[in-house]
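Fold Annotation — chain and its backbone
Encoding — discrete vocabulary of local shapes
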Amino acid sequence: MPSQPSTQLVTFPNPKTDIDFTIRMSIPEFTCLCPKTGQPDFAILDLEYVPDRTCVELKSLKSYIWSFRDRGAFHEAITNEIADALAAVTAPRYLKLTAKFNVRGGIYTTVVATRRQPDWKPESEVVLP
């Protein structure tokens, strides 16, 4: 059992590179520290991405998310840092990270960060009756 988090994200080859498909993950136990008070911040991270050549391996993602537990960071900075790291290692066609932080000072904060390849276009939405 690991006793320390890791900042290394591991990938594996996308098993179906010829089509677009969406991977969705909910990470309900994200924690970091308030950079002003040092008190814990809690958030639910919702990750959606359309992989290109690689996918992120879940165990490494879990350990990477754990690495923020003792770090002070503003909500906006930490959300974009995680989105940048995931985009750097997977180079997805599209990535959206939504960070829904619990109340702090009477305010709930949600930060949404997106990354996309410049030439990627999503398929048209299908609406069923």
Observations:
- The mean pLDDT is 94.
- Residues 11-116 form a domain with the GTP Cyclohydrolase I, domain 2 fold (CATH 3.30.1130.10).
- The longest strand covers residues 23-33.
- Residues 68 and 78 are 9 Å apart (CA to CA).
